[in-house]
Design brief:
The protein contains two helices and two strands; from the N terminus they run H-E-E-H. By secondary structure, the protein is an alpha+beta fold. A two-stranded antiparallel sheet has the order 1-2. Helix 1 runs parallel beside helix 2.
Length: about 90
């Protein structure tokens, strides 16, 4: 199965971002968790796994610490359109 959608381009208003580019162009790409909080012992709260698409939040969500991305609505609309996500 081809998961690449190389013919899809980023919107001109999108900030240059490898993550956003990968998300638009590759259906299976998901960003890593972005929670950089630390515990009192200095260790990170989360190990930084790949996120997954959360239909409930309409964003990507970390399976470990429940961190949720904050991509703008217009980018999320293009992401969903590029990958036929309802």
């Amino acid at each position: 199965m081809n998961t690449q959608t190389n013919d899809v381009e980023l919107h001109p208003n999108d900030a240059p971002s490898i993550v956003r580019s990968n998300m638009i162009r590759c259906r299976t790409y998901t960003p890593y968790c972005g929670d950089a909080r630390t515990k009192k012992d200095g260790n990170l709260v989360c190990s930084g796994p790949r996120t997954y698409w959360s239909k409930v939040h309409n964003q990507m969500k970390c399976p470990e610490c429940a961190w949720i991305t904050e991509f703008p609505d217009d980018f999320i609309a293009r992401y969903k359109e590029a990958h036929n996500i309802k």
